[in-house]
Specification:
alpha/beta, oxidoreductase activity, acting on NAD(P)H, 4-stranded parallel sheet, 33% strand, 5-stranded antiparallel sheet, single chain, FAD/NAD(P)-binding domain, 352 residues
């Protein structure tokens, strides 16, 4: 959407087409595990259907793309329909990592609007829930479910939530945030099976859950890019600071990219909404013939109960953490090789 809007703002009459596998109108994804699941944000659409008509952007929804022919410069969809292109942007995002245990298909994912609707409806009739995974989405979803009056438990293999991303010190404080929100956290535990009544841990312990949510992470969907012969590395599509891939007039943005960031001075992976939107803007400008580079500092926000966590930077798992507690939360600064590489601010809402 960001790329299409940006290109259209520079070229009013060149045809712009969006092909999407999702049957819904383009929507904001961060609120799915925040406001929408909590019942505070019913409308997630980025634009109305009329907006696409007024801006002459053709939106084709619910379509499966079979392949990209970079030589012929065309995209082929299911049924053999050929869509020629002058410039092409790949923004295929990520797919959820399935919970590969017996009964794992009973766990509900939370990635798409359809997922969020299904989970929200299931929560209406649930007394208990289990969230498998202690990452950002898992923590947000668990806090929302607890806020709806559902007795919620997180089960995660790490000792504390968000440990791999932010470290143990921050994770210990997140446990307290979750507890304040009514969420029980079971760390250093692995799910052996999912049943209709909850989950069974490898220790044999059972955790009740009328609803089980699989928040076991995502994997960039680079299948089309790889099949088209684009250069990839570590499961991501390699792009420069202008979002150009190795193929002529083909760009990539969002979760799938290993993109050079001018400010970081290196290629970085960033699987967050703000960065994806900014990369789309850069790709749109580049395709339109305007100078643009990805130079914004990466960042995202997370809501856990009454707390909002704001992160900026590119810290690595081996970065050291300096944490300072405050009355309304805490601050953490991450350092690597003697320089600051990330900051995290956790702040309780004023109403709390």
């Amino acid at each position: 959407m960001s790329a299409a809007e940006t290109f259209r703002s520079r070229h009013r009459h060149i045809p712009v087409r969006i092909l999407s596998a999702d049957p819904a109108l383009p929507y904001a994804k961060p609120p799915l595990s925040k406001g929408y699941l909590c019942g505070r944000q019913p409308n997630l659409d980025l634009h109305s259907a009329g907006w696409f008509d007024r801006n002459d952007i053709e939106l084709i929804r619910g379509v499966t793309i079979e392949r990209i022919d970079v030589g012929a410069q065309e995209v082929v969809t299911a049924g053999g329909v050929h869509h020629p292109y002058w410039h092409l942007l790949l923004a295929t995002g990520s797919a959820t990592v399935p919970l590969k245990v017996p009964g794992g298909d009973l766990a509900q994912p939370l990635r798409t609007f359809a997922d969020a609707v299904a989970l929200k409806m299931a929560a209406r009739h649930a007394e208990t829930a289990v969230v498998v995974g202690g990452g950002l989405i898992g923590c947000e979803a668990a806090a929302c479910l607890a806020g709806l009056g559902v007795g919620t438990t997180i089960v995660a293999p790490e000792a504390v939530p968000l440990e791999r991303r932010f470290g143990v010190d921050v994770g210990e404080r997140v446990v307290k945030m979750l507890s304040d929100a009514g969420v029980r956290f079971i760390g250093s535990s692995t799910v052996a099976a999912v049943e209709h009544t909850g989950v069974v841990l490898t220790t044999g312990e059972t955790v009740d859950g009328d609803v089980v949510v699989g928040a076991t992470g995502v994997r960039p969907d680079i299948r089309l890019a790889a099949a088209a012969g684009l250069v990839t590395e570590g499961g991501h599509v390699v792009v420069d600071e202008h979002m150009r891939t190795s193929a002529r007039n083909v760009y990539a943005a969002g979760d799938i990219t290993l993109a050079r960031n001018v400010t970081a001075g290196r290629r970085v992976v960033s699987e967050h909404w703000r960065d994806a939107a900014q990369q789309g803007l850069v790709a749109g400008l580049t395709a339109a013939g305007y100078p643009a580079s990805w130079d914004m500092i990466s960042g995202f926000s997370c809501e856990i109960g009454k707390f909002t966590l704001e992160y900026r930077g590119w810290s690595s798992p081996d970065a050291s953490c300096r944490l300072v507690d405050r009355r309304d939360g805490f601050s953490a600064t991450y350092h690597s090789d003697g320089r600051a590489v990330g900051t995290l601010e956790a702040t309780a809402s004023p109403a709390s």
